[in-house]
C-alpha cells in the first residue's frame, strides 16, 4: 500500500473482534517501531505485553476509576472491563525517566514508534488505538506492572486487534491553517 493511502486510511480503532492477532505479527510491529528516530540513541522504550492476569487487574482498576466518578451499572462495568480485555493485545508503554529535555525528545521518539507500529499493523488489516485512558498511566498501574515511577513514566496503552468497527476519518483542517512560509 502506498504511504499516502496507508497514512490517511489508518484509523484509531475503538471496537475489536475477540479474534487473536498472531503474536509474531505484533512482535514484528514492535520490533519495527524501534526504527523510529531517536535523538542521542537513548533507546527510551519500555513495552509491557500484558497477559491475562495483568489484564484482569487493569480491567478491575478501570472499573474502579469509573466508579470513582459515579455509580456504574453492570452494563457500564462490563463495558469498562471489555475495553481492557477485548483487544487481542494490550501493550502498556513507558519511557525511561530522564532529565526534562531528554524526556521531551524521548516521548517524541515513542510517538514516532507508535505510528510506525500502527501503520505496519494497519497494512495487515489490524487496528490499534493509543489510549491514555486513566488505567494506562495510573499510579496503581505501576504496581500492577511491577515497575517504579522512579524509573519509568507510563505513556499510555496500545490496543491491538481485528477491528469490528472502523470509524469514519475525522477530517483534518487544510495545511494552510498551520503553515506559515517566511521570507
Ligand atoms: C498521545 C495520544 C493519546 C490518545 N489517547 C486516546 C484516548 O485515550 N482515547 C481515545 O479514544 N483516543 C485516543 N487517541 C487517539 C486520537 O483520539 C485519534 O488519533 C484522533 O481522534 C484521530 O483519529 P485517527 O487516529 O483515526 O485519525 C490518542 C492519540 C494520541 C496520539
**What is the topology, as strand order, of the major beta sheet?**
2-3-5-4
Report, as a whole number of angstroms, the end-to-end distance: 37 Å
Q: Please state the average pLDDT score.
A: 97
Total E-strand runs: 6
- The share of residues in helices is 40-55%
Structure summary:
With 183 residues, the chain is an alpha+beta fold. The protein has one domain: NADH Oxidase (3-Layer(aba) Sandwich). 42% of the residues lie in helices and 18% in strands.
Structural commentary:
This protein has a four-stranded antiparallel β-sheet with strand order 2-3-5-4, with helices on one face. Strands 1-6 form a two-stranded antiparallel ribbon. The chain is built from six helices and six strands, in the order αβαβααβαβαββ. The model has no long low-confidence stretch (mean pLDDT 97). By secondary structure, it is α+β, with helices and mostly antiparallel strands. The chain has one domain (3-166): NADH Oxidase (3-Layer(aba) Sandwich), CATH 3.40.109. Helices cover 42% and strands 18% of the residues. The protein binds flavin mononucleotide. Flavin mononucleotide (FMN) binds next to β4.
Amino acid at each position: 500500500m502506498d504511504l499516502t493511502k496507508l497514512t490517511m486510511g489508518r484509523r484509531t480503532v475503538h471496537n475489536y473482534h475477540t479474534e487473536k492477532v498472531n503474536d509474531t505479527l505484533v512482535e514484528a510491529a514492535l520490533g519495527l517501531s524501534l526504527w523510529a528516530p531517536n535523538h542521542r540513541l537513548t533507546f527510551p522504550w519500555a513495552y509491557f505485553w500484558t497477559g491475562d492476569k495483568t489484564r484482569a487487574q487493569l480491567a478491575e482498576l478501570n472499573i474502579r476509576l469509573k466508579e470513582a466518578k459515579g455509580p456504574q451499572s453492570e452494563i457500564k462495568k462490563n463495558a469498562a472491563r471489555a475495553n481492557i480485555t477485548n483487544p487481542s493485545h494490550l501493550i502498556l508503554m513507558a519511557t525511561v525517566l530522564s532529565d526534562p529535555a531528554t524526556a521531551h525528545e524521548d516521548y517524541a521518539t515513542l510517538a514516532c514508534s507508535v505510528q510506525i507500529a500502527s501503520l505496519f499493523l494497519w497494512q495487515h488489516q489490524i487496528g490499534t488505538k493509543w489510549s491514555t485512558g486513566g488505567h494506562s498511566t495510573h499510579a496503581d498501574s505501576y504496581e500492577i506492572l511491577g515497575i517504579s515511577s522512579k524509573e519509568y513514566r507510563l505513556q499510555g496503552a496500545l490496543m491491538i486487534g481485528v477491528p469490528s468497527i472502523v470509524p469514519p476519518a475525522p477530517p483534518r483542517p487544510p495545511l494552510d491553517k498551520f503553515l506559515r512560509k517566511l521570507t
